[in-house]
UniProtKB/TrEMBL annotation, chain A:
Its cofactor is thiamine diphosphate; Mg(2+). Belongs to the TPP enzyme family. One of its GO terms (molecular function) is thiamine pyrophosphate binding. It catalyses: 2 pyruvate + H(+) = (2S)-2-acetolactate + CO2. GO terms for biological process: isoleucine biosynthetic process; L-valine biosynthetic process. This is Acetolactate synthase. It comes from the Bacteria. Residues 24-138 form the Thiamine pyrophosphate enzyme N-terminal TPP-binding domain. It is an enzyme of class 2 (transferase). InterPro entries: Acetolactate_synth_lsu, AHAS_TPP, DHS-like_NAD/FAD-binding_dom, THDP-binding, Thiamin_PyroP_enz_cen_dom, Thiamin_PyroP_enz_TPP-bd_dom, TPP_enz, TPP_enzyme_TPP-bd. Pfam families: TPP_enzyme_C, TPP_enzyme_M, TPP_enzyme_N. Gene3D superfamilies: 3.40.50.970, TPP-binding domain. One of its GO terms (cellular component) is acetolactate synthase complex.
From TrEMBL, chain B:
The gene is ilvN. It comes from Gluconacetobacter dulcium. It comes from the Bacteria. This is Acetolactate synthase small subunit. One of its GO terms (molecular function) is acetolactate synthase regulator activity. One of its GO terms (cellular component) is cytosol.
Length: 608, 171
């Protein structure tokens, strides 16, 4: 018989066979995971976490997904979290395991994704001695996490582990690291259920103050040119917040735009949606932002990719800003009505107040505003011409459009992740999302290599769904080793590479700012993606011209297993529309014809 | 639209924190990472029974930056309360300095005379040196040190500001 009991049979702190069951720290950790509703974790083993891996081996409540690099474990957990609304969980070893995870942690911090990352650590007596695989993980991750812990005392383990989940998911969500010295996971530790007592110092405010919402709605009623500016905070507030947003937008009749992180919180195919705003946003979204008289920001944070030149951002508008995190309000842009609270609660309260307060926004003014917006929309800023001669070169926008249309034909629930670069922007512009939690991208940190592991995480969470990574050839090589994970778990992920043989986004900026001197931005010595796929037991496909594109996409979608589709697209295509940095929203470039006309200011160059 | 106020103001920020390891590093790391000034800093346990420490930071910035500092510090998990005492109202801010003056003859007598005028105490005396202890507002300490400079000022050790609201209110 095992000296340590099987975890599945354990009822902690009960008398099994008349004796107190003593759990190891590792076993306590697993009990906490079960308490917290965790059914899957992403990780990679090593010396400092071996006791935890041993405890994992002896149970089957928690499934472990073995990634091929710790950074990928965090991105997979992020996508798992973003696509399910649950907390993503990571387990890595000390030293290099923890340092490899740091990029993922910062990514989750910037995009407010709830992740709990357990890191191994050398035993407490060895801390500070430069022991083998010792790194100061709590020191290194202090600014990379929402909060972190080093568990030095077994009595704290259960409380800290529960608390980590609470902090990761509540308020503005984010990553939390729990550093576990080896002697803590080996030695005995008391189990405790999650405490119901409020945390002594951490008390995020999710219920908005009615008075602020009343003032906001009064301004909305007076508005002649209103605009909703929505962001990732609405997605984080849960699907019911997106649903409420839909009601609010329809009830008010106002136009709605969204940030990159917010895509899907309002259906992007709806007439009232103006497309994404910001650097690569649509003409109508940016001009509406510039020209509106009441701007209602919900769960968005006035990122520099959104605002462009700050002193020219939405000049003259009355600004309402709702965010769960007080520090986001008046950080970049001074607002007239700050509202601290959960986006979903704010929207619900706005709906109540909208019905309670007399009057409605002037219908004539609103109609005129819509007329203006339709005129801007008439510019068709996302339009491109695809030569349909079968041998013609594929334009990347066309590839994304066809991917969207053919994916919709399958009728399957579809999740899209991306890497970072031009392809990411084309995906944001040309793929449509009518539901939240289906769009997985690295916004704040802009991490190349996010998309492939993110697709792993989304597919693990949704085994029957269609999961596509819209990738660039350069980015996807940054975590290409995850093809191994995809093979091991037979994940039918589709990797759709818009292969322009350049770090296209870098090339674009070099054209704009550096006299087209393509310093190190050519993707030299690329692998043969078909053979690369095959060596990882996946299907490889390639489209080299328009005539082949639909067939390749159809074959990819029909394939039951994983696919790497190498879509050879125009090498010189640039991403438009574009607001060059340092410019205002009404100074957009619509296409290459205008490129010669821009003079990016000295400050603009600094802002890049 | 609200206009931004660009004037630089000085602020005394008092922060009540859970007395746990790493909490000071969190606060200082936040200031360093976001480019906020720290002009002086004090930290000590104040509520042993409740494991609470108080950090006082003298900083400066535009009113918007000071607001951001408060909000960003308030986000830290082990922070109970944060207040800008300069905004809350009248407050007392004091620091202590130990000032070593090495001299003899006329400068030595002059140093002692000035110390008396400032109500500084000589806490260590040798034939060639004094260590003065002086408590007061930062400006008072500054001017005392300035006056000692030509009189053999050798070394200074200052505590940084401890501050508290006047009257019955607390942070
Ligand atoms: C880890 C990381 N390193 C560098 C960058 C800077 N960067 C942004 S986009 C880009 C090029 C991406 O190339 P590719 O994946 O081929 O996408 P494309 O722009 O060609 O669509 C680079 C290098 C980044 N975002 N992330
Ligand atoms: Mg590329």
């Amino acid at each position: 018989m095992n000296a340590t009991p099987n975890l599945n049979d354990l009822k902690p702190n009960t008398h099994a066979h008349g004796a107190d069951v003593v759990l190891s720290g590792a076993e306590v950790l697993l009990r906490v995971l079960v308490d917290q509703g965790v059914d899957v974790i992403f990780g990679y083993p090593g010396g400092a976490v071996l006791p935890i891996y041993d405890a994992l081996f002896r149970q089957n409540a928690v499934r472990h997904i073995l990634v091929r690099h710790e950074q990928a474990a965090v991105h997979a957990a992020e996508a798992y979290a973003r696509s399910t609304g649950k907390v993503g969980v990571v387990l890595v070893t000390s030293g290099p395991g923890a340092t490899n995870a740091v990029t993922g942690l910062v990514d989750a911090l910037m995009d407010s994704i709830p992740v709990v990352c357990f890191t191994g650590q050398v035993g407490v007596p060895l801390i500070g001695t430069d022991a083998f695989q010792e790194a100061d993980t709590t020191g290194i991750t202090r600014q990379a996490t929402k909060h972190n812990y080093l568990v030095k005392n077994p009595a704290d383990l259960a409380r800290v582990a529960h608390e980590a989940f609470h902090i990761a998911r509540s308020g503005r969500p984010g990553p939390v690291v729990v550093d576990l010295p080896k002697n803590i996971s080996v030695g005995p530790a008391p189990y405790a259920p999650a405490s119901r007592a409020p945390h002594p110092s951490y008390r995020p405010q999710s219920e908005p103050e009615r008075e602020a919402v009343v003032r906001a709605v009064a301004a909305m009623k007076r508005a002649r040119r209103p605009l909703f500016y929505t962001g990732g905070g609405v997605i984080n507030a849960g699907p019911q917040a997106s649903e409420a947003l839909g009601r609010l937008v329809r009830r008010t009749g106002f136009p709605c735009t969204s940030t990159l992180m917010g895509l899907g919180c309002y259906p992007t195919t709806d007439r009232q949606f103006l497309g994404m705003l910001g650097m690569h946003g649509t003409y109508e979204a940016n001009l509406a932002t510039h020209g509106c008289d009441v701007l209602v920001a919900l769960g968005a944070r006035f990122d520099d990719r959104v605002t462009g030149r700050l002193d020219a951002f939405s000049p003259g508008s009355f600004k309402i800003h709702a965010d769960i995190e007080p520090s986001q309000i008046n950080k970049i842009v001074q607002v007239d009505v700050p509202i601290v609270g959960d986006a979903g609660r704010v929207i619900e309260m706005m709906l109540e107040e909208w019905d309670r307060q007399d009057g409605a926004s002037d219908p004539a003014a609103l109609a005129q505003w819509w007329q203006q917006i339709e005129a801007w929309r008439g510019i068709r800023s996302l339009h491109f011409d695809q030569d349909m001669t079968p041998s013609a070169i594929i334009r990347p926008q066309h590839a994304v459009r066809r991917l969207y249309e053919l994916a919709m034909e399958t009728g399957r629930d579809t999740f899209v992740s991306t890497e970072v670069g031009q392809h990411q922007m084309w995906a944001a512009q040309h793929f449509q999302f009518d539901r939240p939690n289906r769009w997985l991208t690295s916004g704040g940190l802009g991490t190349m290599g996010y998309g492939l592991p993110a697709a792993v995480g989304a597919q693990i969470a949704h085994p029957d769904a269609l999961v596509i990574d819209i990738a660039g050839e350069a980015s996807t090589l940054m975590n290409i080793q995850e093809l191994g994970t995809i093979a091991q778990y037979r994940l039918p992920v589709k990797i759709f590479i818009l292969n322009n043989q350049y770090m296209g986004m870098v090339r674009q900026w070099q054209e704009l700012l550096h006299g087209s001197r393509y310093s190190e931005s050519y993707s030299a010595a690329l692998p043969d993606f078909i053979r690369l796929a095959e060596s990882f037991h996946a299907k490889g496909m390639r489209a080299t011209c328009v005539g082949e594109l639909d067939d390749v996409i159809r074959a990819m979608l029909a394939e039951p297993g994983a696919v790497v589709a190498d879509i050879c697209v125009a090498q010189d295509e640039n991403c438009y529309p574009m607001i060059p940095s340092g410019a205002a929203h009404n100074q957009m470039l619509l296409g290459p014809e205008q490129e010669g006309e821009v003079k990016v200011s000295a400050e603009g160059r600094m802002l890049v | 639209m609200t206009m931004q106020d660009e004037t630089i103001v000085s602020a005394v920020i008092s922060i009540l924190v859970e007395n746990e390891s790493g909490v000071l590093a969190r606060v200082i790391g936040l200031f360093a990472g976001r480019g906020y000034n720290i002009e002086s800093l004090t930290v000590a346990p104040v509520e042993q029974s409740r494991h609470q420490s108080r950090i006082n930071i003298v900083t400066s910035g535009t009113p918007q930056v000071i607001e951001q500092i408060k909000a960003q510090v308030g986000r830290l998990v082990p922070v109970y309360r944060v207040a800008d005492l300069t905004q809350v109202g009248p407050h007392v801010a004091r620091e202590m300095a130990l000032v070593k003056v090495v001299s003899s003859g006329e400068p030595r007598t002059e140093a002692l005379r000035i110390a008396e005028a400032f109500r500084a105490r000589a806490v260590d005396t040798t034939a060639t040196s004094f260590v003065f202890e002086l408590t007061g507002a930062t400006e008072k300490l500054d001017s005392f040190i300035d006056l000692m400079r030509p009189l053999g000022l050798a070394e200074v050790s200052r505590t940084g500001v401890a501050a508290i609201i006047r009257g019955p209110r607390t942070i």
